[in-house]
Design brief:
single chain, alpha+beta, two-stranded antiparallel ribbon, 2 strands
């Protein structure tokens, strides 16, 4: 895979799929067996990522990601990004700030 392709995939993942959010990209970008051990749900693959994105956007409805730096190689990419959003939903025992 060309460097431009790996960087393009990373940009789609962070900006298009997570920030917009365009959940249809999960069906294209996520392997059906994807299931990290630290996420406690019965979902896996694209459905797990869609669940996570919707969950984060329910907590931070204006969640946006900005790519600060990106470096692609033929089969991998490194991305440094910044995420910002207003805490409006409950996260476990943490309520949104009262203002």
């Amino acid at each position: 895979m060309k460097i431009e392709e790996t960087e393009s995939i990373a940009k789609k993942w962070i900006i298009d799929m997570w920030s917009k959010p365009d959940l249809s990209l999960a069906d294209i970008l996520v392997d059906s067996n994807y299931k990290p051990e630290w996420i406690y749900t019965d979902k896996k693959g694209p459905e797990l990522i869609k669940h996570e994105i919707l969950h984060f956007h329910s907590i931070f409805p204006d969640l946006k990601h900005e790519i600060i730096e990106i470096k692609g190689e033929e089969n991998k990419v490194w991305v440094r990004y910044k995420a910002t959003g207003t805490h409006k939903g409950q996260v476990g025992v943490f309520n949104p700030p009262i203002k």
